[in-house]
């Protein structure tokens, strides 16, 4: 008998509940309709999707990227930009500038500026910097639930090589939640990336975060489970660039959100994720 094979008793006793983040549920339909992100525009993809979900703007990812100063890497094989099983998608609505492969993407200052501009200052991103740990992430999730009126969505700038592989099977997931040591699946790919946190699966001994991704081929239609420690490592990156968490919130909540986050000792400042900030029109 496979010791990791789930039984009905496992399901009823181990997985006590799935707790979605307060701002997460309204993103489900918009994320499903958005499908796969355009190549190299994961940050703009999320802001575009969030603004549509919150019925603020219908700006598409490429135009959002234009506002953010996004740049496309040139010279690489496009299939290197996507995880295994996904096809390159370059149907950009507007032309975007190009750059050396290592500089491609969207800077954090650019994404902050574009969010304010595209939402006519109705929404903003609050950038949180620290040396991330599982405990910090647990605190962040607790804040999102305690202050549910924020309806905030955490947007994580990560290095994906620290994630578990997205196709964690049910047996291993249940074993992990019960406290049993498991061999996690190898990561799907290794890139700087943006994902959102959607909720938590709480088991008898441990919990897993529900990560919402930009590629439907990952996990279950873009949803996969990650331990808090893996997400913390992905935020810290250790690849020569910095990572962090952006809290997407309505602008009128910004003072309260900043106050609560500063009380945790987190810095509120953009980080260098390896892509220079170039405003629209700059060469």
SSE layout and pairings?
Layout: H1 8-14, E1 17-20, H2 28-34, H3 42-53, H4 61-68, E2 72-73, E3 98-99, H5 108-118, E4 123-129, H6 134-146, E5 153-159, H7 170-178, E6 192-202, E7 207-212, E8 223-226, H8 228-236, E9 244-250, H9 254-262, E10 267-268
Parallel strand pairs: 2-3
Antiparallel strand pairs: 1-6, 4-9, 4-10, 5-6, 5-9, 6-7, 7-8
Helix pairs in contact: 2-3, 3-4, 4-5, 6-8
Summarize the structure.
30% of the residues lie in helices and 18% in strands. The protein has 283 residues and is of the alpha+beta class.
Could you describe the 3D structure shown?
This protein is α+β, with helices and mostly antiparallel strands and 283 residues long. Helices cover 30% and strands 18% of the residues. It has helices at 8-14, 28-34, 42-53, 61-68, 108-118, 134-146, 170-178, 228-236, 254-262, and strands at residues 17-20, 72-73, 98-99, 123-129, 153-159, 192-202, 207-212, 223-226, 244-250, 267-268. Helix 3 crosses helix 4, helix 4 packs across helix 5 and helix 6 (134-146) packs across helix 8 (228-236). The N and C termini lie far apart (63 Å).
């Amino acid at each position: 008998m496979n010791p990791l094979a789930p039984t009905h008793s496992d399901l009823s006793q181990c997985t006590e509940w799935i707790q979605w983040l307060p701002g997460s549920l309204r993103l489900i339909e918009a994320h499903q309709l958005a499908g796969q992100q355009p190549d190299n525009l994961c940050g703009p993809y999320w802001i575009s999707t969030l603004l549509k979900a919150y019925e603020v703007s219908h700006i598409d990812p490429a135009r959002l990227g234009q506002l953010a100063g996004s740049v496309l890497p040139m010279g690489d094989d496009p299939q290197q930009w996507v995880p295994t099983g996904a096809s390159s998608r370059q149907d950009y609505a507007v032309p975007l500038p190009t750059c050396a492969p290592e500089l491609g993407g969207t800077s954090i200052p650019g994404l902050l500026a574009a969010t304010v501009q595209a939402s006519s200052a109705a929404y903003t991103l609050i950038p949180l910097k620290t040396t991330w740990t599982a405990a910090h992430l647990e605190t962040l999730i607790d804040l999102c639930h305690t202050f549910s009126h924020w309806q905030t969505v955490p947007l994580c700038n990560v290095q994906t090589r620290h994630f578990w592989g997205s196709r964690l099977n049910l047996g291993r997931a249940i074993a992990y939640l019960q406290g049993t040591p498991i061999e996690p699946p190898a990561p799907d790919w290794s890139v700087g990336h943006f994902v959102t946190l959607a909720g938590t699966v709480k088991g008898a001994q441990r919990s897993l975060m529900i990560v919402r991704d930009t590629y439907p081929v990952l996990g279950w239609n873009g949803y996969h489970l990650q331990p808090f420690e893996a997400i913390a490592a992905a935020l810290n990156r250790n690849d020569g660039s910095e990572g962090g968490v952006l809290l997407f919130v309505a602008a009128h909540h910004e003072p309260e959100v900043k106050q609560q986050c500063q009380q945790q000792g987190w810095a509120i400042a953009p980080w260098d994720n390896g892509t220079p900030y170039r405003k629209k029109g700059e060469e």
